[in-house]
Amino acid sequence: MMGLPLAFTEPLLLIGLVSLPVLWWLLRVMPPRPRRIEFPPTRLLFDIAPREETPSRTPWWLTALRLLAAALVIFAAAGPIWNPQVGAAGSKAPLMIMLDDGWSAASNWDVRVRAADELIANADNDRRAIALVPLSEPNRDITLMPAGAARVALRQLAPKPYSIDRVETLAAVDRFLKANGDCEIAWLSDGVDTGRGEEFVAGLGKTLGDRSLTIFEGGTSSPLALVAAENAAAKMTVKVLRTDSGIAAGTVRALDQKASPIGEARFAFGPQDKETDASFDLPVELRNDITRLEISGERSAGAVQLLDKRWRRRAIGIVSGSTSETAQPLLAPTFYLTRALAPFADVRLADKGSPQQGITQFLDQKLPMIILADVGTIAPEIRERLNAWIDQGGVLVRFAGPRLAQAEDDLVPVKLRKGGRTLGGSLTWEKPQHLASFAADGPFAGVTVPKDVTVSRQVLAEPDAVLATKSWASLEDGTPLVTGEHRGKGIVSLFHVSADMRWSDLPMSGIFVEMLRRVVDMSGYTSKPGAGVASEGTTETVAPLHILDGFGAFGPPPATAKPLPADYRDRATSDHPPGFYGPAEGPLAVNTLASADRIAALNTASLRARHATYTNAEPRDLRGWLLSTALGLFLIDAIIVALLGGGLAALLRRRAAPAMIVLGLVLAGSVALSPAPSRADSAADEFAMKAVSQTRLAYVVTGNADVDSIVKAGLTGLTLFLAQRTALEAGDPVGIDPARDELAFFPLIYWPIVPGAPKPPQDAINKIDAYMKQGGTVLFDTRDAYEAPPGDNTASQTPGMRTLREILSSLDVPELEPVPREHVLTKTFYLLRDFPGRFNTGQTWVETLPRDEDDDSAQRPARGGDGVSPIIITSNDLAGAWAVRPDGQYMLPVTSGDPRQREFAYRAGANIVMYTLTGNYKADQVHAPALIERLGQ
Question: Pairing relation of β-strands 192-193 and 184-188?
């Protein structure tokens, strides 16, 4: 309503506001104030002058007070609701919920799930079917389902770590709408256009036609993203993206491979900025250790930038055999190489001296890459060191020149002819040759072939059977321009032209920079042929290692993740989610967004739709507040009328004491009518309605925030497990106070024992005792099996067990025993031998089963009539094993490290819940063979 989160259940009653002008006219009249006249008998006819009395006028402010009270009554009758739940109340058409579930929805995922849950609840109240459509799954069948199944499906959804293509889902939506006719559609949008947004909006408008559409957007902070990390000469920078406007700031954190912090960088947005930079002014050695950049406080895969060895600023040594370095430095090979490498590498030039000394200098410094520009003969001992360095992963890049053309050297990838090929020579071209192509499996694959690069001289390779597999770039006549091969863990590459302008104009072109960048990317990167290294015509693929989920947390690779080429440079997809791929010592990073990607706000203005915002507030009925305020205004009006009419003054003069008593009673009544008691009663009624509307698990609130949060998360995880594995669709767990809340609504109460906690009051103990006798089950968990001293019967010596003994000392507890192997609890749903939680060393105790020879079994205390033990005691911390965070990750580890222990903990929980719900029905089924035998059938 007018931009406010306000709605009315009976909006037609607001027409009553039209009657306020009539009330104004009527309320202006009030009786005249009575006059006091002396009445002596003798002056009866003389002093009273007959005249016509006319009513006096009501003051305008009193009239306004009465109109305000009347308006409040009209508003209250219309049923005002603050923060109303969005949905077509009373509609019988199915509800289709379209949910953006890409990386951009992760930062506010809980808000979106809560909004979807409210929509499902509204549809459930109207007995409407629901279709849930995650826009990341175009191949998913869209089917109608009841509200309970929709809630389970909603809880199973999680944001994807990549950008979704909404357009691909339109075909499935169109088929569903044609099959089901009229539908109400709600689109829970993240408000971000990562590509093809306009096309989707236009297609959605055509698909929906005149159907009702509600778009949820706004009300939450816009997502942030990281792209284009660059390790420059002086600092590392990364771009921070957003979609909204306004002044904002934040922090980007840099982490190493072990998730240890390396540094932080601040960023700030101007009022209209859509992107900004964060810079890390760190030494190059620290910057090279960074493997992850993330925005503090932003939980999404788009807010994470993973870095591999391609982002390391490598130190590269350059050795030149030319004598023109001093005479003409601007024409020397080192000048062109330094300018080309400077944007992405730390270039080190050899000290003045022989090339042998320069090579030795860089080998001693253990550089990952060395460039030799026209270096001819190399001493045998230096050659041996270079070969060993290459075998360990070094990258050697050589450029041709007059010296190399005349030398005999095996530190080249192919065998060379002596002399070379010159324009105008014996092995000549009639005109300079152009660059023709790059090998599809080489490091330059995908680079656009320039048309302006010409070659006038080159060193030729001897033709052989493997020359084609070693050629990375070729000229128009088929001769190689760049060759390379893998040796050991390293690479040897040769540019068949010089690094200056004497043999070609390649060093002056932009392609020269990109070619060197691709070669540098391989330095210290691969241990096998791949990443563009030719190896028998095959391209290496790498398998997923660690994958990011939608919230930006690492996890194991999903079953749908596929291997990718080792030279993969694109953004993440559903087949290749973001994360690390390949060997752990040199993985390949794949990010949610590519360097050139940008995000923008999604424009939905062309759609004919109702727009709603996400909100964290619960709906609130304003009728009680409005009626209470109107009642107060009417009381004030009555007092004012009494004062203006003189009646109150006369009453005070004649009956001072009784009037004060009446006034006190009126004030006391107004205080008694305050909304506080009604809120308490309403809270109790709301608790009861919530408890009986669905089967729910309950837990005792201990007052310890950490314990209570873990227990609540644990029972939530168990509830989801039950919905997935059984027919039980329970509601969210409820925290209770045994001294205040009604316990009869819950079949099972989980009571975590906090060591040293005070004993509950006797009223609470009495309610627990009555609850157990009436068929309820209390599961006491001391959560301390790991703390029990070694030896038999030592569990009772733990602080948690001593606290439990103090509680049980006031309860009428039956005789207990460890769960026997034949007990129905071991067979209720799953076949189990024990009941592990986070720990698997503790025992589980239940009421002792009556034996045939036990004649007084009927006299056992606290024994329910359904055959279910009223008390279960364990120390294995069941809730700790069940507990999951909102993003689906487990909160606490299990002690054994065996993932099957957690699965058995969930199965133990399922057996306990089914045991408390089904009672002796399951017992009779399990013992049916014994019953049949006993009956003689």
Answer: unpaired
pLDDT at residue 20 in the model: 67
For residue 96, pLDDT beyond 90 = yes
Can you tell me the distance from the alpha carbon of 716 to that of 113, in angstroms, rounded to the nearest whole number?
15
- Helix ranges (H only) for 673-798 are 675-693, 705-725, 762-773
CA-CA distance, 703 to 764, in Å (whole number)?
15
Residue 186: its H or E element? strand 184-188
> For position 126, what pLDDT does the model report?
84
Return the structure tokens found at 436: 């023709």
Per-residue pLDDT, 241: 95
**Which residue reads 């759609």 in tokens?**
607
> What residue has token string 């033990």?
869
Question: Mean pLDDT lowest for which of 287-301, 422-436, 845-859?
Answer: 845-859
Beta pairing, strands 480-487 & 471-475:
antiparallel
The DSSP bridge partners found for residue 484 are 493
Q: How many residues does the chain have?
A: 937
Residues 6+ apart with CB under 8 A from 673: 628, 631
Q: Global pTM?
A: 0.54
Q: Are 520 and 340 in contact (CB under 8 A)?
A: no
Q: What is the DSSP string of 858-915?
A: GG-TT--TTS--SEEEE-S-HHHHH-B-TTS-BSS--TT--HHHHHHHHHHHHHHHHH
Neighbouring residues of 756: CB distance < 8 A, sequence distance ≥ 6: 799, 803
* DSSP string of 132-183, one letter each residue: EEETT-TTSPP--B-HHHHHHHHHH----SS---GGGGHHHHHHHHHHH-S-
Which of 138, 88, 137 minimizes the C-alpha distance to 609? Answer: 88
Mean pLDDT over residues 331-344, rounded?
88
Helix, strand or coil, per DSSP, at residue 298: coil
Of 566, 555, 617, which Cα lies nearest the Cα of 590? 566
Residue 306 CA, distance from chain mean position:
18
Query: Where do runs of H (alpha helix) occur along 534-646?
Result: 623-645
β-strand partners of 544: 581
Query: Do the strands 490-495 and 395-399 form a parallel or antiparallel pair, or are they unpaired?
Result: parallel
The residue assigned the tokens 């001072």 is 656
Higher-scoring residue by pLDDT: 285, 468? 468
- At 720 the three-state DSSP class reads helix
| 213 and 608 Cβ atoms separated by less than 8 Å | yes
The maximal CA–CA distance of the chain, rounded, in angstroms, is 157
Q: From CA 672, how far away is CA 643, in angstroms rounded? A: 24
Of the segments 5-19, 114-128, 626-640, which one has the largest average pLDDT value?
A: 114-128
Residue 414 carries which side chain, given as an amino acid letter?
V
What's the sign of the alpha-carbon dihedral 257, 258, 261, 266?
A: positive
Q: What is the pLDDT of residues 178-221, one digit of tens each?
A: 888 888 999 999 999 988 889 999 999 999 888 889 999 888 88
Q: Which tokens hold the place of 50?
A: 């007959």
Tens-place pLDDT, residues 694-750:
889 999 999 899 999 999 999 999 999 999 999 888 888 999 999 888 888 899 999
Backbone dihedral region for residue 342 (phi beyond 0: left; psi -120 to 50: alpha; all else: beta)? alpha
Name the one residue in this structure whose structure tokens are 């080159």. 458
Tokens of 588: 């390949």
Paired with 748 in beta bridges are 777
What is the rounded distance in angstroms from the CA atom of residue 735 to the CA atom of residue 740?
A: 12
3-state secondary structure 370-408: EEEECCCCCCHHHHHHHHHHHHCCCEEEEECCHHHHHCC
Cα separation of 190 and 11, whole Å? 31
Q: Which of 412, 424, 426 is nearest to 374 (CA)?
A: 412
> For 282-307, what is each residue's pLDDT tens digit?
888 888 899 999 999 999 999 999 99
CA distance 332 to 318: 12
At residue 861, does pLDDT exceed 80? Answer: no
Give yes or no for a contact between 533 and 445, defined as CB atoms under 8 angstroms apart.
no
CA distance 72 to 69: 5
CA-to-CA dists, residue 387 to 394, 412, 494, 866, 867, angstroms? 9, 11, 15, 82, 80
